[in-house]
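Hi V.,

Quick status before I head out on leave. The structure for the redesign project is tokenized and pasted below; the design run finished overnight.
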């Protein structure tokens, strides 16, 4: 009876296997070390990297806009800003509002930029009053920030009186045009301006625009 041939490959003992693995690791030690360093650096950067700030969607001007512009949808575009960079008083729906001052492209539209009570800071004890100056060409000479004295002339007697002094021009809305202009200027014509005056003078200023010819003189500073 013949015997099966013996396996020519000797049995590999555990010690031999360990030596083989050790030699393989030693040959690749630089590659393994570099990979370990890369993993450590990536983990460190991930741990210290700042988280993305929370943002809010606001409406900003698509272009430079002049004072007196009545805002339309084409003047505005949505933009994401960090929550901490959103100005106080930013308007959600400013379409149709009239700008009290010029606005730069990319600037958020706030309540302090449009005609309204917010034109005055909260610390100012004056009030905002719409006033119709009798001469539209004189009104065109004014700019927001001008300080003027208001004068009213009685159309019957021709007497002129000082209505209020130290009045600040806040905004000069554009004149109404088209069919909406019919009757908009009132019985005495003229041009609408927005001013700030004291609470005591507010009633007299408002009344002068509908009962007298109102003009102004600049205050010398």
């Amino acid at each position: 009876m013949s015997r099966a041939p013996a396996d020519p490959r000797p049995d590999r003992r555990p010690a031999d296997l360990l030596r083989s693995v050790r030699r393989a690791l030693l040959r690749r030690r630089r590659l393994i070390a570099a990979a370990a360093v890369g993993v450590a650096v990536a983990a460190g950067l991930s741990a210290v990297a700042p988280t993305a700030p929370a943002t809010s969607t606001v409406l900003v001007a698509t272009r430079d806009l002049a004072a007196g512009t009545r805002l339309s949808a084409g003047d505005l575009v949505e933009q994401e800003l960090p929550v901490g960079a959103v100005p106080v008083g930013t308007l959600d729906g400013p379409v149709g509002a009239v700008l009290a001052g010029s606005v730069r492209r990319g600037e958020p539209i706030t309540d302090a930029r449009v005609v309204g009570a917010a034109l005055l800071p909260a610390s100012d004890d004056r009030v905002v009053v719409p006033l119709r100056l009798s001469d539209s060409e004189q009104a065109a000479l004014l700019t927001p920030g001008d300080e003027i004295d208001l004068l009213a002339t009685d159309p019957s007697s021709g007497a002129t009186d000082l209505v209020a002094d130290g009045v600040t021009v806040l905004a000069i809305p554009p004149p109404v045009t088209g069919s909406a202009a019919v009757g908009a200027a009132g019985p005495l014509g003229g041009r609408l301006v927005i001013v700030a005056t004291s609470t005591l003078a507010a009633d007299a200023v408002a009344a002068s625009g509908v009962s007298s010819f109102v003009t102004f003189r600049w205050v010398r500073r």
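Above is the designed sequence. The chain has two domains: 55-113, 121-218.

G. will cover questions while I'm gone.

Best,
W.
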